[in-house]
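Hi, here's the filled form for the chain we discussed.

Project: internal
Contact: R.S.
Residues: 149
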Amino acid sequence: MTYTLDKVTEPQDWRDYHAIRRQELFEARGRHGLYQENYPDEYTPGKHHYLLKLDGRAVGTTRLDIRGDGTCVFRMVAVTASAQGLGHGRVLGEMVADRARAFGAHTALVNAAPTAVGYYEKSGWLRHAWDPTELVGIGSDSIQMRKFL
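And the returned structure, exactly as it came back:
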């Protein structure tokens, strides 16, 4: 098994990136028709889009937002349903943390879905309210967490 964390640049990678996010973070949670591929915040400076591939097949995705204060935000972390529970999320988290450190980040932040809090806690994340305005709207049920890199 060979993992790669690919920066999303190619058309097929963009299709996989959006398909995983749409399916796992929206449709699987009953939020049909809400996912926006062209959401304006998605493409502003400091946003880095990644696909976790296992033997060349996309199994996970996230966006890494680098902030100017030594923090970063893991956004929209998702692993395909067929790949969940097999350790791919842990690998994705470790590889993205490596990228964040390379950008100079020392602290990672996340808005975790309630069903994912256990995964994050097992991975060393702690509950930490870092920006309540992030929880307005679609993420209102999220739990804010942080991890020192």
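Let me know if anything looks off before we file it.
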